[in-house]
Amino acid sequence: MNDGVIASSPIPHQARRPRPINVLTEIVREAFFGLLRNRLRAGLSMLGISWGIVSVVMLLAYGEGFNQALLRGFQGAFSDGVTILFPGRTSMQVGGGRAGREIRFRMVDGEAVGAMPIVKAWSPEFMHDMKVAFATKQNSYMVRGVASVYGVIRNQPAAVGRFIDDEDVRLRRRVVFLGSEVALRLFGTQPAVGQTVRLDGMPFGVVGVQREKAQLANYGRPDKECVFIPYTTAGQLWDTEHLNMIVYQAVDPRIAEQTAKQVRQMLGRRLLFDPRDEQALGSFGSVESQEIISGIVIGLKVVLTFIGVLTLAIGGVGVMNIMFVSVTERTQEIGLRKALGARRGADAHMPERREDLLDDAQVHGVVIHMQDHERTTDVRIGLRHEKAPLNSTAILAQEG
């Protein structure tokens, strides 16, 4: 104490830099107590983040499952590297010929396609709607005249029996392979193999029934609603001078697009149309189906990813809210540190002195209060002496 004034010890402005382990410990401790103080916000935020992660995983899994379902659906119609050609009308003039000329396939055109070294297999396809009957049941179905390899390149698995073979084609046998829906409507639960059906009154023996399959692409009718016979036998039922379709498979599915281009050029030379004329010769197959699938799946995954990220962002907002509340709660503490002389960055470098600073602040408060109280007391005593009246004894003493 000096002249009634209590001197306070100065607060050190600089302390040794803490070790990183102390900083990490303080951060973990602050985070833990912050979560305890905000239990509801923390619980809702963790729930939002957890649900966001689960949503993203589920949505991406759904997108991949949808992609696989599309692939199986198109593979039910085509094997890899398969292309179906169907004739159209020319829209461009070639060699002096007029536009609008009808293109028609003949058997020799299909054989020319099959003779190309980059073509693995091919089959003609003749199509005609006919009445198919068994006993008293009768209905109209599409009859397809095809080769034996058609069952492989167009994916026609047999649930019972077999598909048409090379001997059926060579001997022009009257045999038939039934689609799954046709067999169900004609025979119900009865075994179909070995039975005889009539195509426009002509008897055909059933050699097999198609296995039920997923099919997202078809032309004419779905395969399950069709009847398949040897193309050599089809000539006994209707005129087969012109082919309805040419179905072929590339040697390697990776060069299917290149194979399609060369086949189009070869047929353009034979049938006198410009290979660039899309209306003269139509085509559809595994390449086109892959492009369709890719477009659908990419669009779906973008939408699902956006939804998942948005869900995660909602959980992130909860985390930021907790951080904001924690910083707001320490605003007064940071202000107190600066008032006691802490430099910029001291809050980050001296987290272990938080309790010490609060204790020093309390001591300073007591000291300042004591100083103010003492000064007030001294002032009051001085005023009391100045204002006190002189009694008679004091007066006599002064006169004497």
Describe this structure in words.
It is a single chain. The chain is of the alpha+beta class and 400 residues long. It has a domain of 173 residues. The protein is built from 13 helices and ten strands. It has a six-stranded mixed beta barrel. A hairpin with a 2-residue loop joins strand 2 and strand 3. Helix 2 runs antiparallel to helix 9. The longest helix is centred in the C-terminal third of the chain and has 44 residues.
List the helices and strands and how they pair.
Elements: H1 20-37, H2 39-75, E1 82-87, H3 107-114, E2 119-134, E3 137-146, H4 150-153, E4 158-161, H5 166-170, E5 175-178, H6 180-187, E6 196-199, E7 202-210, E8 226-230, H7 231-234, E9 245-250, H8 256-271, E10 281-285, H9 286-329, H10 331-339, H11 346-349, H12 354-387, H13 392-399
Parallel strand pairs: 3-8, 5-7
Antiparallel strand pairs: 1-9, 1-10, 2-3, 2-6, 2-9, 4-7, 5-8, 6-7
Provide a short characterization of the protein structure.
With 400 residues, this protein is α+β, with helices and mostly antiparallel strands. It has 13 helices and ten strands.
